[in-house]
Amino acid sequence: MSADPHSMNPVRPTPRRLDDVPGWFWPVDQLLFTRILDGQTDAGTTGDLLELGTYLGRSAILIGRHRQAGESFTICDLFDSDAPDAANADEMSMSYRKTLTRQAFEANYLAFHEELPTVVQAPTSVLQDGRITAESCRFVHIDASHLYEHVAGDVQVARAALGKNGVVVFDDYRSAHTPGTAAAVWEAVFSHGLRPVCLSPEKFYGTWGDPLVVQEMLLRHDWTGEGWDLCRDTLAGVEVLRLSGNGINPSDPEAEAEAARPAPVRAVPRGPVPRPRSVGRRLALDLLPPVATRAVRRRLQAARDRRTD
Ligand SMILES: C[S@@+](CC[C@H](N)C(=O)[O-])C[C@H]1O[C@@H](n2cnc3c(N)ncnc32)[C@H](O)[C@@H]1O
């Protein structure tokens, strides 16, 4: 995260694709979030979703796409409220104040989803009051203040919130301008039992459960075959995956073209629609707004029907 990349253009049209939403959530992390959240659902793991630091919704929109029936999604952000201390206020005015309003976040989110998540407009420290049920979450994304004192508090929120083998993700764990996040994350590893699972250039993925469960989920995919760089490192005796590079682009032009075409006239058969198989299509379905997603699903189903006619 650096200075707001969109501050010169505060009036924006309704986003159609995730990449139209300003933010700092890059393809490798979009894919890692998708694979972890899908992997949990495929394994029958249920739990709530939580994001600390949402900005205009780029990461929240993708996370919200994975919420299953019976699960909640809560986001916490200051938006246009006052920061709780001077250092946090400086951070806000340097990076977010020019464009960030709760209204702008909500408009972006509703371009992709029919309903908003539970919104807590407050400093993330309020979540230490127990309003997030202990061990209720399967996925927590921490991307709010990058100051040590705040991130150290967010670590404890995530630790209390996560259930068995739940995954926490920290943004900016190694950027030159965010030493506070680095300090809090590695303190969590060496003093508070957090176990690294995977590292991307921007984000640290960890768990207080068994890292192998999450790593096995990730290693089911052919990352190198899809063009990503996958390495294994050993940190203090623990094996950690490291992913980077420019693999398959989640913005799939084929799916976009499909979405733009009118839906077929024939009736869509009742019953569950099988999950799309290709990585590009699956990601595109995650990233497109609901109307476009429905159109893609209709086209995929129609193509399958034609094949079985
Ligand atoms: C880097 S941005 C989040 C980016 C977003 N996750 C994305 O991928 O686009 C950080 C966000 O944290 C919020 N924030 C900063 N300090 C905070 C605090 N103490 N409590 C809650 N939110 C805070 C800011 O308002 C900003 O929206």
TrEMBL record:
It comes from Kitasatospora indigofera. This is Class I SAM-dependent methyltransferase. Pfam families: Methyltransf_24. Residues 260-270 have a biased composition (Low complexity). InterPro entries: SAM-dependent_MTases_sf. Coiled coil: none annotated. Residues 246-279 are annotated as: Disordered.
